[in-house]
Amino acid sequence: MTSDDQRGAAPAAPPRFGANYTPSQGWFHHWLDFDIDAVRRDLDAVAALGLDHVRVFPIWPYFQPNRTLIRPRAVEQLVALADAAAERGLDVNVDGLQGHLSSFDFLPAWTQTWHRRNLFTDPDVVSGQCAYLRTLAAALADRPNFIGMTIGNEINQFAAGPHPDPDRITPEQADAWLTEVLAACEEGAPGRLHLHAEYDAAWYQDDQPFTPAQAARLGGVTAVHSWVFNGTAQRHGRDAAVTGQHAAYMIELSKAWALEPGRPVWLQEVGAPAPLIPAADAAAFTEATVAAALDCADVWGVTWWCSHDVSRSLADFPELEYSLGLLTNDGRVKPAGESLARLAKEWRDGRPAPAPRPTALVVDAGPDFSRRSVCAPGGAVFEAFARLVADGMRPAFVLAERVGDAAYLAARGIGEVVRPSEVLG
């Protein structure tokens, strides 16, 4: 196999560094008792780390409690938050239809129980979603620090199991829905970076209707959410090379489905979940994860989950959710925060372009994505990657149907393709 120890020398655009903003007071329920001074204190702490952006979460049912009521005061508060961020040199990405955050579902009553309608196919629901996304985007369209809209937080979890009550759809219906809601964002704020973001079932789960192709082809950037509690750390251990490389794995895997080389990828969520990553190891895990991610080409940025720990005064969260912050609930910088701050400072002035990845693993997930579980921890593609990175390799990925496309392989700098069976024996 080809050795890839060389490093490129040409400069690349500096990556963005940010945090998913979790308010220190009241978590995301802070919208119910909005306190701009508390928000400013939180954002001061984020800016002091040297980060350049935050991803913020206007909770959908709090902002749109009725299908035809988008609360003006709530929208004003969102704009106030964005302006406070701008005063501290922070850009803002706005997450619209969260649906799900930290084990809790957030859906408006007009989609549930007596008014139960499919989130993705009911025309009234989709019309309401589009109106809401368009309204938020338009409210921020003239703010220079507004990056753009993310459709929602891992809303694909509502479309299949293991959600206990999914709104099942086909991949074609998911495609139609994504196209419509992304268009609404563009109507509200033309020219901004609008995107959608799924959790890793889109890449790993055979029956998930949101697909890798949609993730890598729709929207202005491919979003990746990397969590090693998905079986990676359990199977391989916290010190394994593949655990620190999981985010890079997902970034490179996404490139296999992109239509054009060079599509940007945003590592939009990544964190150090205890106890799989103990507190004593969080800083080392942060450094390993970010270094590996930025050893991939075309990375738009890294946005850590999350800014602040969840307060212990709030009940019923999974234990790991209380300790994911870069900062404690009272604003003290944690070791992971120190690590990310140092990395942001080191990378701010540019970086050498990552070296090519001349060896590519073949991904055969089926034309209908029905075999994409080969990419999940335990699957042949994933385990072949784990074997190669343990040996110091830096593999890329190529779809089985593109192995014979010489021009495409050359454009990506791929000179050798290897099937997982050849690696695993």
From TrEMBL:
InterPro entries membership: GH
Highest taxon above the source species: Bacteria
Organism: Streptomyces alboflavus
Taxonomic lineage from the root: Bacteria, Bacillati, Actinomycetota, Actinomycetes, Kitasatosporales
Protein name: Glycosyl hydrolase
SUPFAM superfamilies: (Trans)glycosidases
